[in-house]
Write a structure and sequence with these properties.
Elements: E1 43-46, H1 59-68, E2 72-79, E3 85-87, H2 108-113, H3 133-140, E4 145-150, H4 155-164, E5 171-175, H5 178-187, E6 193-195, H6 204-211, E7 218-219, H7 225-233, E8 237-241, H8 249-256, E9 262-265, H9 268-277, E10 303-310, E11 319-325, E12 333-337, H10 352-361, E13 365-369, H11 383-397, H12 399-402, E14 409-414, H13 416-428, E15 434-440, H14 456-466, H15 474-478, H16 481-484, E16 493-498, H17 507-518, E17 523-528, H18 537-554
């Protein structure tokens, strides 16, 4: 493959821009798509087909891959000018053929006239051509699976051809572009997907958070033992690339000594023979055909969950989930408030890996609360503040009985929930219990034209919240964190925001941050220039990391 990790934010496209904490939605318990069936436990992938004696990405190379005993033939897919799917690793035909030009600028007829030159084995005088995808599918059916390096094609058309050939269960798709993740999920939700782990994901904790946000079946560049353990615990296979100019038994053994499930090679026949000779062909049979439901090494989390605990009069909405560590004596409490434009969302969106870190490792008590949602003009502002107040009062009431710290709280929220956390801390916390606020892309000034006159979507949500249309009405300022914060009411605040947020303009975070600094209130502003409303998986890991650092400084887990 010879990749330079082009997949730094492959799942960003799968997250909507709804007025909710999209990137923190809890999808930790992913349901994996089954991998294609193989007769051997350890996967061998023939890189660009078996091209030892014939040219890469040709029908002949795929034929040779099937004969070699490999489990998969890796092929590269592109689209011609007139919409046909053909095999080509390069974007141009220059290296492989007697022609020149981009594949996408040539018609199928022009492609078929090209001869593949200078890449045949000794004494081979045959003429080879760039094949159509459909021709390769017919060769592979019931003989060898396909590792589809998805370079430049339409997922819907690709899947249509796979189904027409009866090959839809014999393929794993490698994604090269961020948009392809969402496109494949829409075109074929059951298709197993593969990618490279982003360079920024370089710790087991970050890896776990990343896997909580995307559904991926295979990764190809995980080699660290601790990271490999995370992959296995999450039911994600790892197939390493071993192809190189010096590929030999020493290179293979280096990979085989890791806890992986397969390799991609330029010498599939030789590798298959070596694996058989060394009794390693069966390999990690647990990943054969499907991912394990309960991976070996799984441990129960070091906390327990209390679900749907009632804290107020509304039996449906005034409920919370509490995550309690095994040792909670004098534990501090973090309260999370979900997003959803004040009309939707749910407390269950908080991600399991972050719960593991905050509760299981750092021994906070984490509370994720629901609140009354606006419907048919009911539960408009200030019902939201009443519910936050009610939840904190409930937690304080039982703190002495259960021996946790109920005198102080950290508030954390996403989008609409972040707004509620900020406003409660700055304008409603008369007992001064809130010690810090963590704001994930929340609105801060409900009178600002950036989310009113200049943004119809945001404006409609604010109107539903307040019950008035005029952005100059007094309630718009009274209900805005920006106008309620003062030297006496402000608390340490960290703000996270995407620079291209289409719903809550980034200026909302910028102006509050500036005011906090002017008031002398500890504040930190983290801008992600190319993120939107919510964060891509890679950016989210950075958000989580900075959140934990902030808590260590302004709300450490236990008083020293």
């Amino acid at each position: 493959m010879s990749r330079s990790n082009p997949f730094l934010s492959f799942a960003a496209a799968c997250f909507s821009t709804a007025f909710t904490l999209v990137a923190l939605s809890s999808t930790a318990q992913q349901t994996h798509a089954p991998l294609p069936q193989t007769k051997d436990g350890f996967i061998v992938i023939a890189h660009r087909g078996n091209h030892v004696n014939v040219p890469e990405n040709t029908v002949a190379a795929v034929e040779e891959a099937a004969k070699s005993g490999a489990d998969y033939a890796e092929i590269d897919l592109r689209t011609t000018k007139d919409g046909f799917l053909v095999l080509s690793h390069d974007a141009t035909v220059d290296r492989m053929t007697d022609g020149k030009g981009n594949v996408k600028d040539l018609t199928l007829e022009e492609i078929k006239k090209l001869k593949i030159v200078g890449h045949a084995g000794p004494g081979d005088q045959k003429v080879y051509r760039i094949p159509e995808f459909k021709d390769v599918l017919s060769v592979c059916k019931k003989r060898i699976n396909i590792y589809l390096d998805f370079k430049d094609a339409d997922p819907a058309e690709t899947y249509r051809q796979l189904k027409a050939a009866g090959m839809e269960k014999q393929v794993v798709v490698y994604l090269n572009k961020p948009a392809h993740y969402k496109q494949w999920k829409e075109a074929a939700p059951q298709m197993p997907l593969m990618a490279s782990l982003p360079d920024a994901i370089n710790t087991p904790e970050a890896f776990g958070l990343f896997l909580s946000q995307v559904q991926i079946e295979v990764l190809d560049n995980v080699q660290d033992s601790a990271m490999l353990a995370v992959a296995r615990q999450n039911g994600v296979a790892v197939w390493l690339d071993v192809e190189s100019p010096v590929e030999n038994a020493g290179v293979w053994e280096q990979a085989l000594h890791k806890d992986i499930q397969g390799v991609q090679t330029d010498h599939p026949e030789a590798l298959v023979s070596y694996l058989k000779q060394t009794n390693q062909r069966n390999g990690a049979a647990a990943f054969k055909g499907a991912h394990p439901a309960a991976p070996e090494g799984y441990k129960l989390p070091a906390y327990r969950k209390l679900s749907d605990v009632a804290y107020g009069s509304d039996a449906k909405d005034n409920v919370l989930d509490a995550y309690i560590p095994s040792d909670y004596d004098q534990a501090k409490v973090i309260v999370y408030i979900h997003g959803g434009g004040w009309t939707g969302g749910d407390k269950g969106e908080f991600p399991a890996p972050l719960i593991d870190e905050l509760v299981g490792k750092r021994k906070y008590i984490l509370v994720s609360m629901n609140y009354r949602l606006i419907k048919d003009g009911k539960n408009i502002f200030p019902a939201q503040m009443e519910d936050v107040s009610g939840a904190l009062a409930f937690l304080s009431k039982y703190s002495k009985k259960y021996h946790y710290n109920g005198n102080e709280f950290a508030l954390m929220g996403g989008s609409a929930g972040a707004y509620m956390a900020l406003l409660y801390a700055y304008g409603y916390d008369t007992a001064r219990q809130v010690k810090t606020v963590i704001d994930y892309w929340g609105p801060t000034d409900l009178s600002d034209k950036a989310i009113r006159a200049e943004n119809k979507d945001a404006d409609s949500k604010v109107v539903r919240l307040l019950g008035v249309e005029d952005p100059q009405a007094r309630i718009c300022q009274d209900a805005s964190p920006y106008y309620r914060v003062s030297k006496t009411t402000g608390v340490p605040t960290i703000l996270f925001h995407g620079g291209e947020d289409p719903l809550v303009n980034v200026s909302q975070a910028e102006k509050l941050y500036k005011k906090l600094l002017e008031l002398g209130i500890p504040a930190q502003y983290e801008l992600y220039p190319h993120e939107k409303h919510g964060m891509s998986p890679v950016a989210s890991v950075d958000v989580f990391t900075k959140t934990l650092t902030w808590l260590e400084k302004y709300y450490p887990a236990k008083n020293l």
